[in-house]
């Protein structure tokens, strides 16, 4: 379980692609302190299991489902990813509950940079839009963000300078894809209301 508060960006230092399976190695630096094999780490919003540890570097295996539904299959050596270690029971949760089970991907369609602002417009599967509500939560590449504007198959988020500094969003451009995880609480509420109304 994660909070959606990205702790740092880390470089990919090795990628081993096999049929239906890719092993990725990431240098966590000091964030690797105390990590154990079998631990969960959010890599650009995707929950991965640590399968091997070598100093500050961790390896994780990604199966076909992960490679198909997320952007991780396109990572290459030298790329960076948003990283969050799993939260402890006594930790402050500053974002929202994030599982790392990605719904799919969204594409950046527009980028605005008015003074001291950074506004991104994303396009995603229209079927997801009933769960994407103004002022609601969404996780994009592992970042817990607040939705601002909502359109039939697009939505916007506004990023503060700190988010741009500590995540990969500062280098994102139009056409880039990100991993999207819908807020599970919103999904439950929407589905419950839909079921109630259909039974009236």
User: What is the average of the pLDDT values?
Assistant: 93
CATH class of the largest domain: Mainly Beta
Name the helix and strand elements from N-terminus to C-terminus, one letter apiece. Answer: EEEEEEHEEEEEEHEH
Percent in strands: 35-45%
How many domains in all? 2
Strand arrangement, largest sheet? 4-3-7-1-2-6-5
Distance between the termini: 36 Å
Q: What is the CATH fold-level name of the largest domain?
A: Elongation Factor Tu (Ef-tu), domain 3
**Helical residues, percent:** 10-25%
Helix count, DSSP H or I runs of 4 or more residues: 3
* Overall strand count: 13
Unreliable segments of 5+ consecutive residues: none
Query: Outline, from the CA principal axes?
Result: globular
Structural class: mainly beta
Q: Specify the biggest β-sheet.
A: 7 strands, antiparallel
Radius of gyration over alpha carbons? 17 Å
Tell me what the CATH architecture of the largest domain is: Beta Barrel
Written overview of the protein:
This protein has 200 residues and is mainly β. It folds into two domains: 8-85, Beta Barrel (Elongation Factor Tu (Ef-tu), domain 3); 104-198, Elongation Factor Tu (Ef-tu), domain 3 (Beta Barrel), CATH 2.40.30. The protein has helices spanning 64-69, 161-166, 184-198, and strands spanning 8-18, 21-27, 40-43, 46-49, 52-54, 57-63, 80-85, 104-112, 119-123, 137-140, 143-150, 154-158, 177-182. A seven-stranded antiparallel beta sheet has the order 4-3-7-1-2-6-5. A six-stranded antiparallel β-barrel has the order 8-9-12-11-10-13. The N and C termini lie far apart (36 Å).
């Amino acid at each position: 379980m994660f909070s959606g508060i990205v702790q740092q960006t880390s470089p990919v230092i090795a990628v081993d692609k096999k049929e239906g399976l890719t092993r990725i190695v990431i240098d966590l630096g000091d964030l690797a302190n105390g990590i154990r094999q079998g631990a969960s780490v959010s890599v650009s919003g995707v929950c991965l299991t640590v399968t091997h540890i070598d100093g500050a570097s961790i390896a994780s295996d990604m199966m076909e489902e992960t490679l198909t539904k997320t952007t991780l299959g396109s990572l290459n050596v030298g790329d960076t990813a948003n990283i969050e270690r799993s939260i402890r029971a006594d930790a402050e949760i500053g974002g929202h509950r994030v599982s790392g089970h990605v719904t799919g991907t969204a594409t950046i369609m527009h980028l605005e940079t008015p003074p001291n602002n950074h506004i991104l417009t994303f396009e995603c599967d229209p079927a997801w839009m009933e769960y994407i509500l103004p002022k609601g939560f969404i996780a994009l590449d592992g970042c817990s963000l607040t939705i601002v504007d909502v359109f039939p198959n697009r939505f916007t988020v506004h990023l503060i300078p700190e988010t741009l500094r500590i995540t990969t969003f500062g280098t994102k451009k139009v056409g880039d894809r990100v991993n999207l995880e819908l807020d599970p609480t919103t999904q439950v509420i929407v589905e419950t209301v839909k079921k109630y109304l259909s039974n009236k």
